[in-house]
Amino acid sequence: MVLGRATSPPSSTAFRRTVFDRKRAAKLLRNLPQLTTSRLLLRKFKRTDVHDVFAYASDPEVALFTVWEQHRDLKTTRQFISTVLKAYRQGHPAPWAIVLRKTGKLIGAITLRNWSLAHSRAEVGYVLSREYWGKGYVTEALNAVLAFGFSEMELHRIEAKAVPENRGSTRVMEKAGMKCEGLLRDYELVKGAYQSLNLYSILKSDFDAR
Ligand SMILES: CC(C)(COP(=O)(O)OP(=O)(O)OC[C@H]1O[C@@H](n2cnc3c(N)ncnc32)[C@H](O)[C@@H]1OP(=O)(O)O)[C@@H](O)C(=O)NCCC(=O)NCCS
Description:
Helix content is 30%, strand content 28%. By secondary structure, the chain is an alpha+beta fold. It has a domain of 134 residues: 3-Layer(aba) Sandwich (Aminopeptidase). The structure holds coenzyme A.
């Protein structure tokens, strides 16, 4: 009887011998670099951003599909910024502020969170002030963040999730070349109700082939 031969490891692109170690990851996140696109600057948040952040975070339409509640006072926004600044200091994943290069106005945020070092994977999330929707800003920011994730963080896969009703977010993910992998049923308990979310992803190989 012939026994099955040991199978060879997965293809070289899928099989990585090294992963980002914890120390190196923390150093990169502590010094989260500024990213520049044709119209935008992605930079670290500052305490003085409080009014610009409150302007979008207090808008119920902006917060309709977000996991966080609409901000009802500046204190909540100050707490949000403090949490972000603490995450930078500790070398944990934290958002970039999306800023218009032309005016210096902060109009939103984008983040690469849930970084799994063992699996070279992270999840992207974003939000934009309603006044600026539909002008391609988040797609522009997302492309820069995907490039950063695949090059500087050496990620293999980047995910994003959105409720199917969030047509704007769905379109952003599609325009960036992310593929829908299916519906995660009753995946998150948000604002007192279970939400089903579509899971999207892009692999480094997809991104390089775009
Ligand atoms: C989702 C969001 C980030 C999109 O940002 P944006 O800068 O407006 O996105 P872009 O302009 O790059 O692209 C939006 C696309 O969605 C489309 N779109 C927007 N609203 C839509 C709707 N209700 N139905 C169908 N398409 C819609 C736009 O037409 C555009 O597609 P196109 O370029 O093919 O015309 C922004 O609307 C937002 O901040 N929403 C609230 C927060 C949120 O939902 N965050 C995501 C949580 S998963």
